[in-house]
Automatic annotation (TrEMBL):
Protein name: Vanillate O-demethylase oxidoreductase
Residue span(s) of domain FAD-binding FR-type: 4-106
Record carries keyword Metal-binding: yes
Alphabetical list of Pfam families matching this protein: Fer2, NAD_binding_1
The gene coding this protein: vanB
Record-listed E.C. numbers: 1.14.13.-
Alphabetized PANTHER family for the sequence: CARNITINE MONOOXYGENASE REDUCTASE SUBUNIT, NADH OXIDOREDUCTASE HCR
GO molecular function: 2 iron, 2 sulfur cluster binding; metal ion binding; oxidoreductase activity
Taxonomic source organism: Georgfuchsia toluolica
Length: 321
């Protein structure tokens, strides 16, 4: 497979936005225009050798002179967020991908945006777009405490300040997020968007399902995934459809890593099944889906999987490679 297209950009500004959150403003060194993007888009940031992380674009989607991302220092960081906080500085040149969008806005009568912590980043871009078009929406921003609210000055000065509601874990009960109230009556003309920690997304999605919301009206994007228990893994074979070559995938080893050793490159980024970069077509066999990218309906079709983390339920998968 071909290599991902990258752009060289300059860190124009680095700013502390909240406790453990910084923003990076990125632009072309020659001050030229950047590729267009839509609300919900993200970029891959090449932080170091074999270290690529995905960050949502959180500026207005009609801007072409800059990209803005927000980065949380993750205590469980595998190196990416710590490097951005401690190593990358204003003036540095870094490589990024062109924008990709797996979390697009859908035209709807009304939209509800739910952000947990750093999950505010794609929601800001969506709020900018919805406000710009005069759409009916609300944004609910949840954080552990007030000092962890990022981009607060920007939101206060925005056209959507009145549609934004803050909820703090350490605050009074009356200001906490009341999902049961907000989602009590399903509305097929309203779409929900959720981003944040895995537990937050799962909680909102479960509440929506329990209240009777249709799955097609609930949209979400994971930033990370919990560590996988690979202790029960068994070996299986992968057949490369174009050549008939059969390659054994040992327990505890990613399909992408084993194929790479045999000269078969699949583009990867997150390596945890959240970004969709490595999605590969399955021609035969049943995948064991371990990703947080494919929808439940897509997983049931068993015609694609994420080889960075997913495996096979049987002895063989035939891949369209």
């Amino acid at each position: 497979m071909g290599q991902m297209t990258t752009l060289s950009v300059k860190v124009l500004r680095k700013r502390r936005e909240a406790t453990d959150i910084v923003s990076l403003e990125l632009g072309r060194a020659d001050s030229g225009m950047l590729p267009a993007f839509s609300a919900g888009s993200h970029i891959d940031v090449h932080i170091g050798p074999d270290l690529i992380r995905q960050y949502s674009l959180c500026n207005h989607p009609e801007e072409r002179h800059r990209y803005l991302i927000g980065v949380l220092r993750d205590p469980a960081s595998r190196g990416g967020s710590v490097a951005i906080h401690d190593t990358i500085q204003e003036g540095d040149l870094i490589e990024i991908s062109t924008p990709k969008n797996h979390f697009p806005l859908v035209r709807a009568r009304r939209s509800l945006l739910f952000a947990g912590g750093i999950g505010i980043t794609p929601m800001l871009c969506m709020a900018e777009r919805l406000a710009h078009t005069g759409a009916d929406f609300e944004m609910h921003y949840c954080a552990r405490s007030e000092d962890r609210i990022a981009f607060r000055d920007r939101i206060a000065a925005s056209d959507f300040a009145r549609q934004t509601h803050y909820h703090f874990d350490d605050g009074d009960e009356e200001q906490k997020l009341d999902l049961a109230y907000l989602l009590d009556v399903p509305d097929h003309s309203t779409h929900l968007y959720v981003c944040g920690p895995t537990g937050f997304i799962d909680h909102v999605c479960k509440m929506a399902k329990d209240c009777g919301w249709r799955s097609e009206n609930v949209h979400y994007e994971y930033f990370g995934a919990p560590a996988l228990d690979t202790s029960g893994d068994t070996a299986f074979d992968v057949e490369i459809a174009s050549t008939g070559e059969i390659i054994t995938i040992p327990p505890g080893q990613a399909v992408t890593n084993i194929l790479k050793k045999r000269g078969i490159d699949i583009d990867v980024a997150c390596q945890r099944g959240v970004c969709g970069t490595c999605v590969t077509r399955v021609l035969d066999g049943t995948p064991e889906h371990r990703d947080h990218y494919l929808t439940a309906e897509e997983k049931l079709q068993n015609d694609q999987f994420t080889p960075c983390c997913s495996r096979a339920r049987g002895k063989m998968l035939i891949l369209d490679l």
